[in-house]
Amino acid sequence: MRERILIFCGVAIFLVLFTYPLWHAAAVSTRATPLRLQLPVEARECVAPIPYMSRGHMEILISWRENAVRHGVRMVRATNGKVYDASLTHTCLGCHSRQEFCDKCHSYSGVSAPTCWQCHNESKLIAGRTP
Amino acid sequence: MTITRKQFLVFAAASLAGAAGAKVVSGAEIVREIAAPKGNKRWAMTVDFQKCRWDEGCNQCSAACKSAHNLPDFPDKTHEIKWIWKEKYQVVFRQQSEVVNPALTSHPLALLCNHCSTPACTKVCPTDATWKREDGVVMMDWHRCIGCRYCMAACPYGARSFNFVDPRPYVATINPDFPTRTRGVVEKCSFCNERLDKGKTPACVESCVEKALTFGDLNDATSEIRRILASRYAIQRQPELGTGPAVYYLI
């Protein structure tokens, strides 16, 4: 029974340390910074509804890639009826900024960055660049 | 209520099939592809010896290819990326160089991927990163290439190059319409399939001021390339190998 006090002290110290992030955050009243993405200025609609895009943009990119590369289909008709060039560089980055949109959200969500940019160009930014 | 093992397995299989079917439908709903009919084409090219002025320093075709496809200029020539390049007749057509006009044997000619009718390179690719399109173009998917270089060993024409280093810093001016490649992938002439899909001819053919390159559909009996092949003597590179090259050299 002598050890009871030691055990309770140990448990208390453990709980204090374990919950440190919670009470420290409460004490200094910090909050998670909301994600602020730079949205396109001129374009008002995307190739698919926004809720679908935030969840399934990778599926669209893969279907564009498979169709363009493997089947030679380079134009797609979106749900809004418009016809788009199935191109990451021209269609996606024609409106969005890679750094301020793609990279920022991937970094915020802790999603490892895909390797698109090793080969694909960031249209406006990289066009005409000379080393 | 109890279910038998068989009922459970049937139910599980049906659920999985339903889930898979639902996914396909939702993907197709979102973006519908516009099918580009390729028809029954067989793209081919002729290179006219008598018109080509590569021996006089003209390199319009390779320059157009280079800027269209972001080809790098490596200081180390062993790393060179070749899509369309020149070689002397006597090197390319060794067996046919003994009895022909001596002026011809030292004449350089344009070499590129032959887009064979039975390509050796596509058969050895372990990842299906290179294959033959319905219209005859031997195509590559750089997303899938793992850089094993079996295709380079299989190609009897040396038409494929490997990126030993990252090519992007060595591309003089990047054309945003075309991707660069990355270290560790194989590449080659693509017959400008991205231009063919939009109804254009390859960049080298369009840029040739001497009209030494002709591009067309072998399956179309009225095409210019068929007319040329019917009227001129044409040779292919190593036809005895049975690969069926689609690039013809007009002597």
Provide the fold topology:
The complex is a heterodimer of chains A (131) and B (251).
Chain A: H1 4-18, H2 20-28, H3 50-71, E1 75-77, E2 83-85, H4 88-95, H5 98-109, H6 123-126
Antiparallel strand pairs in A: 1-2
Chain B: H1 5-30, E1 32-33, E2 43-48, H2 60-69, E3 84-88, H3 89-92, H4 102-105, E4 108-112, H5 120-124, E5 130-132, E6 138-140, H6 150-154, E7 161-162, E8 186-187, H7 193-196, H8 203-207, E9 213-217, H9 224-231, E10 234-235, E11 247-250
Parallel strand pairs in B: 2-11
Antiparallel strand pairs in B: 2-9, 3-4, 5-6, 7-8, 10-11
Main features:
heterodimer; A: 131 residues; mainly alpha; 53% helix; 5% strand; elongated; B: 251 residues; alpha+beta; Alpha-Beta Plaits; four-stranded mixed beta sheet; two-stranded antiparallel ribbon; 9 helices; 16% strand
Report on this structure:
The complex is a heterodimer of chains A (131) and B (251). Chain A has a domain at 50-125. Chain A has helices at 4-18, 20-28, 50-71, 88-95, 98-109, 123-126, and strands at 75-77, 83-85. Chain A is built from 6 helices and 2 strands, in the order αααββααα. Chain A is mainly alpha-helical and 131 residues long. Mean pLDDT of chain A is 85; it is low at 125-131. Chain A has a two-stranded antiparallel sheet. Helices cover 53% and strands 5% of the residues of chain A. In chain B, strands 9-2-11-10 form a 4-stranded mixed sheet, with helices on one face. A two-stranded antiparallel sheet of chain B has the order 3-4. Chain B is α+β, with helices and mostly antiparallel strands and 251 residues long. The termini of chain B are far apart. The radius of gyration of chain B is 23 Å and the shape is globular. Chain B has helices at 5-30, 60-69, 89-92, 102-105, 120-124, 150-154, 193-196, 203-207, 224-231, and strands spanning 32-33, 43-48, 84-88, 108-112, 130-132, 138-140, 161-162, 186-187, 213-217, 234-235, 247-250. Chain B has a single domain, classed as Alpha-Beta Plaits (2-Layer Sandwich). The longest helix of chain B is centred in the first third of the chain and has 26 residues, at 5-30. Chain A binds chain B through residues 47-48, 52, 56, 59-60, 63-65, 67, 69-79, 83, 89-90, 115, 118-121, 123-124, 126-131, and chain B through 27, 29-36, 38, 131, 133, 135, 139, 141-143, 166, 168-174, 176-182, 193-194, 196-198.
